[in-house]
Amino acid sequence: MSNFEVLFDYIQEISGKLLSEDDKHLLMAHFKPKKLRKRQYFLQEGDVCKYIGFIVKGSARTFTVDEKGHENVLKLSVENWWLADFESFYLLTPSRFNIEALEDLEVLQSTNAQIEEFLKHIPAFSAMQNIISQNNTIATQKRMQAAFSYTAEERYEDLISNYPHFLKRFPQNVIASYLGLSPETLSRIRKNSFK
Amino acid sequence: MSNFEVLFDYIQEISGKLLSEDDKHLLMAHFKPKKLRKRQYFLQEGDVCKYIGFIVKGSARTFTVDEKGHENVLKLSVENWWLADFESFYLLTPSRFNIEALEDLEVLQSTNAQIEEFLKHIPAFSAMQNIISQNNTIATQKRMQAAFSYTAEERYEDLISNYPHFLKRFPQNVIASYLGLSPETLSRIRKNSFK
DNA sequence: ACAATAAGTTGACCTAAGTCAAATGTACTT
DNA sequence: AAGTACATTTGACTTAGGTCAACTTATTGT
Predict the structure, then answer these.
(1) Which nucleotide C1' is nearest A182 CA?
(2) pLDDT top residue among B55 and B65
(3) By the 8 A CB rule, do B118 and B26 touch?
(4) pLDDT, tens digit, 9 for 90 and up, residues A110-136
(5) Which of A49, A86, A102, B81 suits a disulfide with B77, CB 3.0-4.6 Å?
(6) Which residues form the Cyclic nucleotide-binding domain (chains A, B) (predicted)?
(7) Number of independent structural domains in chain B
(8) Lowest-pLDDT range of A60-69, B93-102, B154-163
């Protein structure tokens, strides 16, 4: 299956609508394949996030670096997710985030201006956008609640049950940062949970 | 200014589009004014959030209650905000949240099915929805970052600079819970910051 | 295959924030 | 206006999780 077929399937499945041949040609004309090797940056702090990427293969982390050089992972992204700092992408302001490939990464990328065109002309695309933003609203609300009202251990258990594959796929220090923990603390939690 | 005029102004301003007379009639036919007194619930845990409300006057808090009876404020909402548990509202599942009026509250409310109609027939309404979900994505991302990488004191300073009116308007224990702090800790932070 | 670099573990210690309890202050209700 | 129910403050104490450092185990690049 080609990269574009992955994208088409995704749009059709999420939106519940079919893409016409014209729709597909429009998408193929304006999404550009891009490959990044592990450790390469999709976005660097201070730059404007000019592209949004649809992940066909691989994974990435979105993180900030605070004054003390402490890295803070906000998001982990895998296949069939969109990759961008949406604040920077929508508002065209410099980003406070870095987005780095955790594994070799293949994306299909496009610009803000192009996305506006897709939304105007492709019904399945705008239906998709609505559903994604609903899902996003829901997911972030859950994560907020978890951050505030769960203990470190509960957040880890929660991750295990919701995204078990994350644990296999990402290094433990990345998972720790994603959970808002130091690597040492996560190491200890794991040790205890084997009893 | 009538309640509906507040809503019309809001939609037009956010969307950057004008509402036709027909649009306005459609909205007036399907948004129902509703008043709640302070302490009354807009939504109770376990119920499906059947209505979305546009706040014309007053304020509300969205919170959960954990096993220990500990309340956890996730959102504070004031005039010109939408009030709902979007997860429950979109998916029609029972809500894990409570929404309670903090001050006497006037909303214009409508149902999921009606909102779908508005989105279909009123261009300004769907433009508004897109912009709101963009803003929402951005705001939640910021709040997530604050929750993970700021200290209690920094989160309080942040609130002061972003929403100074919240401090005047809401009781301190509500603010504390919103910041993910015990009331005692917030009291101490405030004491220290007067030096 | 072998340094070299990074990731994970473990122990000792520290600190921010939570908990409990008592005292004071404020605001609804009748 | 008095009385009851909340809010806030303060102090004493506890605890979850962070920090620093030493060590072990994996990855990575040449």
Answers:
(1) D18
(2) B55
(3) yes
(4) 999 999 999 989 999 988 988 888 888
(5) B81
(6) 34-120
(7) 2
(8) A60-69
B20: left (phi over 0), alpha (psi -120 to 50) or beta: beta
Domain span holding position A53: 3-139
Separation between the CA of A26 and the C1’ of C20 (whole angstroms): 65
A 10 A CB-CB count for A43 gives 23
A183 domain-assigned = yes
Mutate to test the interface with B, among A149, A150, A182 (most CBs of B within 10 A): A149
Q: Which nucleotide is nearest to B180 (CA to C1')?
A: C17
Residues A113 and A157 in one domain: no
Most A CBs within 10 Å: which of B130, B150, B181, as the mutation test of the A interface? B130
How far apart CA A39 and CA A174 sit, in angstroms, is 13
Q: Is B72 exposed, middle or buried (0-12, 13-18, 19+ CB in 10 A)?
A: middle
What residues in chain A have their Cβ under 8 A from chain B's Cβ atoms? 64, 66, 70, 72, 74, 86-87, 90-91, 119, 129-130, 133-134, 136-138, 140-145, 147-149, 180
Question: Which is more confidently placed, A78 or B195?
Answer: A78
Residue A128 main-chain phi, psi, to 5 deg: -60, -45
Residue B145 covered by a domain: no
Q: How confident is the model at residue A195 (pLDDT cuts 50, 70, 90)?
A: very low
Tell whether B112 and B69 lie within a shared domain: yes
Q: Does one domain contain both B89 and B158? A: no
The domain boundary, picked from B139, B167, B182, lies at B139
Please write the tens of the pLDDT for every residue from A141-180: 888 888 888 999 999 999 999 999 999 999 999 999 999 9
